[in-house]
Structures are given as C-alpha cells and as structure tokens.
UniProtKB/TrEMBL annotation:
One of its GO terms (molecular function) is DNA binding. It comes from candidate division WWE3 bacterium CG08_land_8_20_14_0_20_41_15. This is ATP-dependent DNA helicase RecG. Residues 447-615 form the Helicase C-terminal domain. GO terms for biological process: DNA repair. The keyword Hydrolase applies.
Length: 673
C-alpha cells in the first residue's frame, strides 16, 4: 500500500466514508495517517473492580454477567449491564445507545473506561467507553486514547479503528529527513513518530513524536516556500513597468494626495517601485495595521502600472470591503483618467476598466484581462493558495503579472518569514500623523451599567457605537447558534438597555445586499448603535463611529481584539474601546492590560506569542493566520530551528533525493504566492 493511494484502499473505508473524510481534507492514505490527535483521554489507570475509587477515571477488564434494554417511564431507552471480575461486580449504564444490546453479549470480555459514580444508589460506570477484548492491546480504553478532529459521521472511535488497522498493514514509511538533522536534534525515526502519535504508551512517547512531527511540518513548509520563491524567480519576465521615466508623474501623484505619506509608507512605496523596475515579477507582502494606509500604497502601485499601459486587479475577501476599496480607489485614481470598475457576486460593471476591483467572483469571470500588470490581494490569508494561483492566470499577456498581497493581521516578523518565506516583506509600522490613539478600558461586570449610561451620553452628543458579540462556539465560522445569540443580545439591548435609541443588527448569515443596506444605514446615521458578530472585523470604515464595545472580550485573541478596535478611530474625534468581560485573571488579564497599554498590532502580536508560549504536549488551538496539524507557530525555538535547517538544506537539496521528492510532490500544482 502506498501513501498516495486513495483512502478507500484502507480496509472498511468505502465511497460513503470517502465523502465524509473529504470534509476533514483526508483524500489519501497519507492524509489519514497524518490526521493527528489534538488531545488524549487518559484511561491508563487499570484497576480491579474492588479497587475502583469514586470520581476517579479508570479502566476495568471484566466479564458481562447480564445485559438488558430498559424503557424508562419517560420513554427513554437505557442499556443496563452487570460486569464482574475476580474481586466483585459493577453496574454499567448507557443512555440512548440501544444498539449496544446487539453489540455486547453475556459472557463477553469487556474493557471499560470511565468515571466511577452512583446510579440507583449503587456504584456504577455511567456511559463509559468500552471495547471487546480480543487481544492484549486495546485502542479505545486502558491507555492514552487519541481524540481527533471529527466531522458529522466520522467519530474519533471510528478513526482510531481505521488508523489502527492501517498501521498494521502499512509498509515501513520512508524517512525523508536527513540523518544529520535527526542525529543533531535527537529526533526519532518517522515510523516510530507516526505510531507513537496515534497510539502512545505514555506522555513521553507523545512528546518524542510531537517534537519530530512538529519539526517536519514547519521544515517542509519552509522548504516549499523556498521552492516556490525559486520557481517564481525563474519564471518568465514580468509585464514591463517603467518607473524611472515616469518619476516626475509619480512624484506629482503623491504630492496631489489629500494627505502627506508617513515615512513608513514612503519606504514601502520605494520597495514596491524597486520591484516593479526589475524584469522579475514582484511577489511582495505589505503588512500594516488597520488604518495605517495600505490602500493608498496600493493605489500608487496601480497608478505606476497604468503609466506603462498595464491593467490592475484589486481582490478583496468580502463584498463590504470590495465596495469600500472601490470607492477609495476611484477617489485616488479617477482624477487622472483611470477607469475603476467593480465586480462582486451581486454587482458587475459591464465594461472592463483600467482597474478592476472585486471579490472571488473575479475568479469565475470567463474572459481574461488584457495586459494585466499588477494584482493586489487584500487580506491575503483569506484566500487559498489555489485561488491566488488562479488569479495569476487571468492575463492574456505572455509575461507574468506583479503581485502585491496585503494583510492587516498583525504577525511578528519571525512568523511572517516562516509563513510567507516566498514573499518579500514590507511593513507599515507607523500610523498617519494626527490620528488619536483609541482609549481602551477593561470594564468589569459591576461597571457595565454605568458604561451603558456613558455610551448613551456620547450618542446624545452625535456619536455612534458598535457592540460586538463573540462567536458562541469555538469556531472561526459563524454558526446558527452564534446568530441566535446575537439576536437575543440585540433584543435585550433594544428593549431593556437602550429603548430610547435606534439599533441595527449585522451578522454573517445575512445576504450581501442585506449587510450592505445595514452598513449604509449606519453610515447615514439611521442607527445610533450597530450590534454585530465579529463579521464587522474586516471592511467597515465609518468615521462617526467612535465607540467600540466588545462583549465577552475574553473569547477573543489579541489580534482579533486589535482589529475590532481598528473599526473606530477613523475620524478626528477621540474614540474609545470598551472591553467587557467577567473574567480578569491569568492570561485574560494579561491580554486586557496589553490592549489598554499598546496600540501597535505587531507589538500586540509579539505579546500574544509570549503569553501563549510553545503550548503543551497535548497540542493547542491554532489562531490567526494559518492552521497547522501539529506544530505551533508560537514555539519560537522550533520556528527558528526549522528556518535555519531549511535555509541550509535547500541549497543542497539535490543531495537528498527523498527530501526533494517529498517537497516537490507536495508542491505540485501550487503556484507562487
């Protein structure tokens, strides 16, 4: 069996399972074997029945003396069993699992893992994990039991069974990591790491496996970035952009702007112009806080491209942001005779302009663009590599377009180099002069009422406010449960707290046109307060909104808190950010203090990295810019180690054919950027 075989090559995985596994990005045997647990349930304490302790999580191995299905008075179904070993007997109860009566028979030897409690005044296991004992090695009980990312129809128990069966028949996995790296860092063999991460005997095996697999994940990611960069630099020439002969016009354009560029903006503009001047396609990341002036830097690059008769695409992740950037670019460029058009899911200008602004609807536009010289991708982490690659094909020109990607997600420089090793980096680390810092305060529960009165007073003076409700579930996508919660909060705010004011509601499940209407109405001061889920995080610029209230602030990371705060402070008035939380201790208190003290996104990202630390052996939730299977970008030592090794071994990749094969196989069909 080969790791590149389809996942249906694994015993007992059929077409129906194949479709379900696709939701977890599992398509091949290799994908399944690299679907790692994110934590472990510790069922490793094995006791005799008489030695079990109340409230202790433990495992017993016993014989089924009796098992029956019982219907309660309320109509619920309950399976009750009695199990025994040489020291005594134990009651076991499972609720709403009637199928167990067919699975478990009298006389079966069972391994049961759970917490000892009481049922009907008798000591009992209630809904324990179980498995039939057919060999000495159990996989669901009596050990550290792996818990995997799941989807509807694919449970951890099902995944454990399939992965266990696969490990038994899979030939030894070729270890692509150079011997020198393994020896210098005391890394285990790949075969051992794969086996130990799925079915470890103890915590130490988890640590050893995780150390090796975390290194591999970051090391391969950085080698692939170097490979993409090398391929990009060896590509055909870029569309010709002549900067030097248009220098006077460029200077005149910059002088004609309604404000003076900051030194950081000037530096970034010069770095971009230097790229455009070469015959190699630009591939640059522009990083800067919300409100730092990235759009005007992009506008200058678009203007310079236009002077050389090259067209530009400006790609935004949402219709809200596309509409906003369309208006901004029109303001900067149309006085110079440059036609700006808009394409989103709901609006399509019929004629092609010199600059086309749009959402991913651009990707599905049939015809290509004539002489496309520049592609600007805003909030680049919201686009997949495949989507970004498809954009680069949108030209009829023989030469490659220049690419400028932008992000307001604050990422420390060390992480940016890891994540975007194939990109050149420009950072706008300075805010426009005269912009007042947003005063930020932590608001405890007892001060909430007086805060609402203060908000009402500011609104009576003509200002507006956002109130943000967090996602209710641990998810980056907006669930129906979260929408329901924001609607409940909206009703409470409208009827109980601000009955004298007009409130609007915004959430991610609304249609694009509905969102646009709400935002336009808020901009036109129809609403005093806009209640929203974090969908407001990207793309809303309303200068009269001076107050940002974040409910449940403890549920947000520093990057999200900072970006939400960036939605206010856009005008001349003093703006405020109120962090509402009932919890003010530990990591949460550190975050709140950092928000009160610092305004710079990159500084906050660095603090966030220090607060989080490298994570523990049972893994940590990845936040922000990208998701990894097992490594943590906050483990700065590992990031540094993999970076140094990637730089060294990329230069001599031809000497390591297995490693080269691994990264080229994974990089197939992936274009630069």
């Amino acid at each position: 069996m080969d790791l590149l075989n389809p996942v249906t090559a694994v015993p007992l995985i059929g077409p129906k399972n194949e479709k379900l596994l696709e939701k977890l990005s599992i398509k091949t045997v290799g994908d399944l074997i690299n679907h790692y647990p994110f934590r472990y349930d510790d069922y490793s304490i094995v006791r005799k029945i008489s030695a079990l302790r109340v409230d202790e999580i433990a495992t017993v191995i016993a014989i089924v003396e009796d098992i029956k299905l019982i219907f309660t008075k309320s109509g619920k179904r309950m399976v009750k069993a009695t199990v025994t070993d040489e020291t005594g007997s134990l009651a076991v109860t499972w609720f709403n699992q009637p199928y167990l009566i067919r699975t478990i028979k009298k006389g079966d030897k069972l391994s049961l893992s759970g917490k000892l409690g009481f049922f009907d005044r008798h000591r009992a296991f209630i809904s324990p994990e179980y498995e039939l004992v057919r060999s000495e090695n159990t996989i669901h009980t009596g050990r550290l039991v792996p818990i995997y990312p799941e989807t509807n129809g694919v449970s951890s128990k099902w995944l454990r069974s399939r992965i266990n069966a696969l490990l038994k028949i899979l030939p030894e996995i070729e270890d692509y990591l150079p011997r020198e790296i393994k020896r210098e860092n005391n890394f285990c063999e790949l075969d051992y790491a794969i086996s130990a991460i799925h079915f470890p005997k103890n915590d130490r095996e988890v640590m050893v496996a995780k150390k090796r697999l975390s290194f591999d994940e970051l090391f391969l990611m950085q080698l692939k970035a170097f490979l993409r960069k090398a391929e990009w630099e060896n590509k055909k020439e870029s569309v010709a952009i002549n900067v030097s002969i248009h220098r006077d016009k460029i200077d005149s354009f910059i002088k004609g702007l309604p404000f003076k560029l900051t030194n950081a903006q000037k530096r970034c503009v010069n770095e971009i112009l230097d790229d455009l001047e070469t015959n190699k396609p630009m591939n640059r990341l522009l990083e800067g806080d919300v409100g730092s002036g990235k759009t005007v830097v992009a506008a200058i690059a678009i203007y310079v491209s236009h002077l050389s008769k090259a067209k530009s695409l400006y790609m935004a992740p949402t219709e809200i942001l596309a509409n906003q950037q369309y208006l901004s670019l029109k303001k900067y460029l149309e006085p110079y005779g440059i036609k700006v058009t808009l394409i989103t899911g709901s609006k399509k200008d019929k004629e092609e302009g010199d600059v086309t602004v749009g959402t991913h609807a651009l990707l599905f536009k049939r015809e290509n663009f004539d002489n496309l010289g520049l592609i600007v991708i805003d909030e680049q982490h919201r686009f997949g590599v495949g989507q970004r690659a498809e954009l680069t094909q949108k030209t009829t020109a023989e030469n490659a377009p220049n690419i400028l990607t932008m992000t307001a997600t604050p990422i420390p420089r060390s992480l940016t180099l890891t994540i975007c090793g194939d990109l050149s980096l420009s950072i706008i680390d300075e805010m426009p002069k005269g912009r007042k810092p947003v005063k930020t305060w932590f608001v405890p529960k007892e001060k909430k009422k007086s805060s609402y009165e203060w908000i009402r007073k500011r609104i009576r003076e003509g200002e507006q406010a956002f109130i943000i409700c967090p996602f209710i579930e641990e998810s980056e996508i907006e669930t129906l449960k979260s929408v329901k919660a924001v609607k409940v909060e909206f009703e409470k705010l409208s009827k109980e707290i601000f009955p004298d004011l007009t409130l609007g509601l915004l959430h991610g499940k609304m249609k694009s046109k509905e969102k646009d209407v709400v935002i336009t109405d808020f901009k036109n001061k129809k609403y005093h307060i806009l209640v929203s889920t974090p969908v407001v995080e990207v793309g809303i610029d309303i200068s009269n909104a001076t107050i940002m209230v974040i409910e449940g602030a403890e549920r947000f990371g520093l990057a999200s808190l900072h970006q939400l705060r960036g939605r206010v402070g856009r005008g001349e008035k003093q703006s405020y950010c109120l962090l509402f939380t009932d919890i003010y201790q530990g990591i949460i208190a550190e975050r709140m203090r950092a928000m009160e003290k610092y305004q710079e996104g990159i500084k906050l990202a660095e603090i966030d990295m220090q607060i989080r630390g490298p994570g523990d052996i049972y893994g940590e939730e990845q936040h922000g810019f990208m998701k990894l299977k097992i490594a943590s970008l906050y483990n700065t030592e590992m990031v540094k180690l993999t970076r140094e090794n990637a730089e060294e071994y990329f230069a001599k990749l031809d000497d390591y054919p297995l490693l080269k094969s691994k990264i080229t196989e994974q990089s197939k069909n992936v274009k630069p950027n």
